[in-house]
Design goal:
This protein has eight helices and two strands. It has 170 residues and is mainly alpha-helical. This is Alkylhydroperoxidase.
C-alpha cells in the first residue's frame, strides 16, 4: 500500500499478510459458542472497563486484529485517545485511570500472562478490594474470553485495519 503525505511524499507500507484460515467458516459451531461466551462475558461489566481489558490483553498477546477492533470500539463509545495510548504503560500512567480500573488491569495482566503458573495473591486481593465476588467472576470471564479471541486471531493471522465499530453487533 502506498499513500501520499501532506507534503506530497509517497510512503510505501509493508504488504498486508493474508489470513491463514477463515476460522468462523471452518468451525462455525465453535465460533458460535465463542460469540455466546462473548455475550455472557460482556454482561455486568462496565462497557468502558470491558474495552480497556480487551485492549490490554490484546496488547500483551500481540493480537493486531483485536487491538484494531477494540480501540475503535472504545473510541466509538467515547473513550479518550490518551487513555488508550497510555494503556500499555498503565503503571506509569496511573493518574489516567480509576483505582477500580487499575485493579482490573492488574488482574487482566496476571490472568493473561500466567508466567508463575498462577495469579499472585496480592493482585487478586487488590481486585477483590474493588469488585465483589460476582463482579470478580464476571471480570475473570471477560479476561478469559478476550484471551481466547486473541489466540484465535493470532493463530489464524487475522489482519487488522478492516474493522469498523459495530461491525460484529451481537
Amino acid at each position: 500500500m502506498t499513500t501520499t503525505t501532506q507534503h506530497g511524499e509517497q510512503t510505501a507500507y509493508a504488504h498486508e499478510h493474508a489470513p491463514r484460515l477463515a476460522f468462523a467458516e471452518r468451525h462455525p459451531e465453535f465460533y458460535k459458542a465463542m460469540v455466546g461466551l462473548e455475550i455472557a462475558a460482556s454482561k455486568h461489566v462496565d462497557p468502558t472497563l470491558y474495552e480497556l481489558i480487551k485492549i490490554r490483553a490484546s496488547q500483551i498477546n500481540n493480537c493486531g486484529f483485536c487491538l484494531d477492533m477494540h480501540t475503535k470500539d472504545a473510541l466509538a463509545a467515547g473513550e479518550t485517545v490518551q487513555r488508550i495510548v497510555q494503556l500499555s504503560a498503565w503503571r506509569e500512567s496511573r493518574h489516567f485511570y480509576t483505582e477500580r480500573e487499575l485493579a482490573a488491569l492488574g488482574l487482566t495482566e496476571a490472568v493473561t500472562v500466567l508466567t508463575d503458573g498462577f495469579v499472585p495473591d496480592e493482585v487478586y486481593a487488590r481486585a477483590a478490594e474493588h469488585f465483589d465476588e460476582t463482579e470478580l467472576a464476571h471480570l475473570i470471564g471477560a479476561i478469559t474470553v478476550i484471551n481466547s479471541w486473541n489466540r484465535i486471531g493470532v493463530s489464524t493471522r487475522m489482519a487488522p485495519g478492516h474493522y469498523t465499530p459495530g461491525m460484529y453487533k451481537r
